[in-house]
Every structure is written in structure tokens, then in C-alpha cells.
Design goal:
Layout (H helix, E strand, L loop, with lengths): L1 H18 L15 E10 L5 H16 L4 E8 L4 H11 L8 E10 L1 H7 L3 E4 L4 E3 L5 E3 L3 E3 L3 H21 L4 H8 L5 E3 L2 E4 L6 E3 H4 L2 E2 L4 E2 L4 E2 L3 H8 L3 E6 L4 H11 L1 H16 L6 H19 L5 H20 L4 H18 L13 H28 L4 H7 L26 E4 L6 E5 L4 E6 L9 E8 L2 E6 L2
Amino acid sequence: MKHLIGIILWFVTVSGLAGAEPDTVSAAPASAPAPGKTIYVIPVREDVSAALVYLVRRGVKEAIDANADAIILDLDTNGGRVDCTEQIIAILNNFPHQDQLYAYVNTKAFSAGAFIASATREIYMAPGSVIGAAAPIMLVPGGGAQEMPRTVEEKMTSAARALVRATAQRQGHNAAVFDAMVDKDQGLTVNGEEIVPAGKILTLTNLEAETPYGAPPRNLLSAGTKANLDAVIATIESGNARVVNVEPTGFEQLARLIVLCSPLLLAGALLCGYIEFKTPGFGVFGIAALTLAAVYFFGHYVAGLSGYENAVIFIVGVALIVTELFILPGHVLPGVLGAGLALYALLRAMVDQYPTDAVLPTLPQLELPLYKMGVALVIGAAGIIALAGIFPKTPLYGALVLTKVNPRRPAGADGQPAECVNVSVGARGRALTMLRPAGTADFGDGPVDVLTQGDFIQAGVSVSVVRIEGPTVIVEAAV
């Protein structure tokens, strides 16, 4: 019995312990680290040119679309064009988190590179890196840097100083530092010590750039020296940062070339379109004109300047022009509306409207597109004038505008076009179709293929034969 009671007590005790709540709470499974900031790194590692503008534009666009927290510019440049620098600064101004713009001077940031650095809130520098020497210079193709006339130098220096001073002040930098980088007459003295005398352009090493001054003390320009880009990222986000490196793509490099050559593309499309309108049917020049237009829109789309909607607007405009010329001749509205839509699409494709998407671009946005359009029109008009005088006299012109078989022309028994045996020089007749410049006319013995000397003649207008070259009957409007 004692043994039975002992077994029962042991069973109750063990069961109670098994069902009792534990005195300690078991540890919850470790959760994944909270995501940190999203940081976009944009390299500025080449001369500041239009190509770099496109890269920075895409990087900032992607950062905005991804709701990125910060942008770092990885600077290693000797400088470049002032106009491109202004565009890059304007693009950086679109980033909504202006206090999260950073620059890392990786080796050097000369001239335009220093300007771009002034557009960021904090500047970090690599050991042994330098920044400065931002005075404008004049570059002559094939001749390198040239000395500018004094008046021109003062004008350019004043404009550059104003630009960088306003940018530096907006981001909280010491504007006097950038003044001394641009204007050699300024000099710079800090804490009673002359950093650079008047008459010399300021260039700072990483140690000089972080010299403390003022009360309370603050660094002269650099927020600190960092061994590498990873150290800068760690300063911005000590947690699990998501870093996106922006690099140029092959399509972008091709697009940059296309955008730079856009006036030539437009002029070529205009010339090919002119030749196509001067020849019947649709041939190689029409295909060439459409191809050049497609390349134009493709380049601006990939470069980030344009969307596909501009190409659609252009196609609608061209369709209306074709309707005016071939379907509803004499109706002015389709042609005028089509020309307006085509011109609007061509101009709007060259306008950077990001981040806004206004229907009508502003006047400053139109300055460069209008200039490129003007260049294209001048080249195209000169080519058309030359072609109008020379092309109709070449054998190629006759080969293009007259086909071997034309359904409108009576055929002989062997199926080949009949000779114009009943037409002679001086014969008068009437245009049966519109001559653009090829078409058919009737001289009293049925329809005959004819060709003008380049003029368009409406159907029903009296014409007279100027000359006959083999099977080619050349006419003009009869007086």
C-alpha cells in the first residue's frame, strides 16, 4: 500500500509540474533587421558634359520614383562645361530631400566638380583628395585653354560666382570659400591665417577643407575625411542601408549621341520627306524619313527627355499632313493642324519636363529646343533649295518619278507601256490628276504619264509639253 500511495503522489507531482506555467518566458524568434535608408550613388567620374547630364537626370528621376532617402555624388572630375553644370544643379534641386544630398570627393573635384559639390548639403573627402580651381576658362577646339579678354573674363567670373554663391548659401556652405575658388582676386583668410592670397585661385586639400573656424566652430568646407564610399554610407545610415549604384547603360550612351545629333536627324528627315513628296507612291526616301524620325524620338526617350506620347503625337500630325496632300487636297485645316502637332511633338521631345508634366513647356525650357530646331530648319532648307535646283535635272530623278509600268497609262499588246507617239513638244492638254510632280494628263488621245519640273499642279489645270526625254514627257502649267 505504501508503495501504491507513493506511486500515485509521484504521478500527481510530475503531472502538476508538466502542466504548470514556466517561470520564464521563452525568447521570441529573432526578427530580420529593419530596413534602413535607400541611398542612390551617382558617379560624376568624367568631364562634365551633356553625357553626364543625362546620367544624373536618370539617377535623380529613379531616386525620386523610388522614394529614396538620400543621394551621394561620387566625384572624381577635372570639370567641364558651365551650362551642363547649371543643368545638373537644377536637376539636383528637384530632389525632395535637400538635406540628404551628399558629395564624396574621390580624388578630385575641380572647377565644375566643385560647383556641383556646392549643391549638396554635406561634402566628404577621401584622404589626399582636393577640391577647387573653379575659375572659368575658354577652350578652343584643337587649341586647349586660351586666355580670355579681360571684359569677357570678368563677365564670366561674375556669373559663375553668382551661381555658386547662391547654390552654396542655399545648402549652408561658406560662400566665401567658393568665391575664392572662382575669383582669383578674392583670396581667403580663416582664423587670421591666410589660406590663399589674393591673385591666386583657391584649391583645398581634404585636411584644409575640414579646418574648424568661427564660434561655435564649424568645418571650413568638408564634413570630414572618409576612407572610401562605404564609410560615407555608414555615416548616413548605420543600419541596413539599401544602396543603388547608378551606372550608364549602352542604350544611354547611344541616346546621348542621338540627342547631340538631333538637328542633323531632323534636317535629314526633312530632306528625305521633300524627295518623297516629289516622287509618286511611297519609296525608300519615305522610309528613310520615318526611320530618322523614329531614331530621333528613340534617342530622346532613352535619354529621359521625352515619353512615347510625343512620338504618337508626331505620327498623328504626319497622318493629317498626308491626308491634306493625298486624300483631301485643298482643305487647309488638316495640313495646318498636322504641321502644328508635328512641330509640337518635335519640340516637346527635346524639353526636360521632369518632375512636372505640364502640357506647355516654359520659355526657358524651350530655348535649347528652339535653337536646335532652328539649326535643323536652316540645314534642311538649304538642302531643299539645292535639291530643287539640281535634283530634277539628274537621271536619278527621272528614274525615281517614272515607273516602268503605270496602270493609268495605256499598255501595248506586249504588256509594256505604249510610247508617247501622239505627244509632241508644245502640245497642250489638261492634268487628269494632281501632278506631285508626276501624274497623268490628257492631250486629246487618252491619259499619258507626265512629269513637271518640280512644281505641283492641281488636277484640271491646263498644261503644255516642255520637252520629251525618251518615254518621259515633261510639262509645265500653260500660260
